[in-house]
Amino acid sequence: MIRLVVTDLDGTLLRSDHKFNDEDMVSLYRLGEMGIIRAIATGRSPYSAATVLPDDFPIDYLLFSSGAGIMRWSDKSIIHANQLSPEIVQCVIALLEEMHADFMVHEPIPLNHCFHYHSSGNLNSDFERRINLYKDYSQPLITGVPFPGPASQVLAVLPDDIERFNAISKKLNGVQVIRATSPLDGKSIWLEIFPEGVSKSGGIQWLCSFIGGIKSDDLLALGNDYNDIDMLTLAGEAFVVSNAPSELKNKFQVVPVNDEAGFSHAIKRVLKID
Fold first, then answer.
1. Quick check: pTM over 0.70?
2. Is the pLDDT of residue 273 over 90?
3. Residue 147 sits in a domain of what CATH number?
4. Do 213 and 234 fall into the same domain?
């Protein structure tokens, strides 16, 4: 029996115009009436999520920053958080500089929309666009001196080159590396570095333990990108919207695109509701 429904946000529940399908909103309210717990698992920070989710959005939990933190939605309290130690942050910075990568070092939760950035000097329009989006919350990283504290994550913005991603990720030890597609240009690879064990599935497992008595078979999950694979693999019922990469569509059940209420199709298929 499904007791917890978790969906990704961008490209999954959220439409391409950054609005929500009326049908999906009805489905979320219906789940609440049925006593089923509703959660969003997103790579966004709480600050970024709040730009598209109103205070009264019909969910129970927000798993943000790919599971690095969890917020109880009713009172917006953070009930779980992780961070990288200053020592690990310094090692990661040194490696990314050595690999000539463009990257951001994010402040600890809850101010993890604020970051320091370092440019390799190469042309990287996706990197520049992200800096411009957060110009009020970002500043250049001072190189040559130790980073002054812990971080919630480090994010490297790479070209659409999986070999480049693999070359960097295999050198990163003692951390969790997550691959995501840039929501800004839809093609650049975001190499996200978190504390070991942090992922959407890790956040879900913590939440299941926190709530108590929820097993993988009780979970329905919906996603659209590579950073959803672990969450989808965990779930008893796993779906991707048809705008997901073919690699994911070959592994999981497929529903219509995010712009056509794919979320509601998954809910109705499993719960047998109209």
1. yes
2. no
3. 3.30.1240.10
4. yes
